[in-house]
Amino acid sequence: MxxxxxxxxxxxxxxxxxxxxxxxxxxxxxxxxxxGSYAPYSDFHVGAALMFENGGIVRGSNQENxxxxxxxxxxxxxxxxxxxxxxxxxxxxxxxxxxxxxxxSDEPITPCGSCRQVIAEIEKxxxxxxxxxxxxxxxxxxxxxxxxxxxxxxxxxxxLKKTK
Length: 164
Prior knowledge:
With 164 residues, this protein is an alpha+beta fold. It contains 3 helices and 6 strands. The chain has a single domain (11-160), classed as Cytidine Deaminase, domain 2. It has a 6-stranded mixed beta sheet with strand order 1-6-5-4-2-3. Strand 5 (131-135) and strand 6 form a beta hairpin. It is globular, with a radius of gyration of 16 Å. The two termini are 29 Å apart. The mean pLDDT is 94.
């Protein structure tokens, strides 16, 4: 048996200090996206904003539904909208933030497993990592360079190919 470690590197910023202007702009856009959130069941609102290489921005918010799992996370709303409208555009960064109705969300909002897998496939398809910026209502902002930091040993489509 061999024992191995997975090390995750990320940047951490105190309450938005020293964020680049582009990162700060994207966090503001993700915060603005919270207004479109529909979360009557969880009372947990999530906003996401992504930026293309050309500087264009697409926003998304979580959309719940009484018939779980018919709703969708903010990240996938933004990504799927972006891909359907701009299939050849390269996504360079994605900001995620959230707000709860009954408590202060002071931890960075991270993508769920399904969103991580979608981000992984987008990175593979565009052959470029996506910078992921995660922020709560307050507290630190964490940034990773590429989904592999959040989804080590990820599933890729090569695993679907059959050989005889």
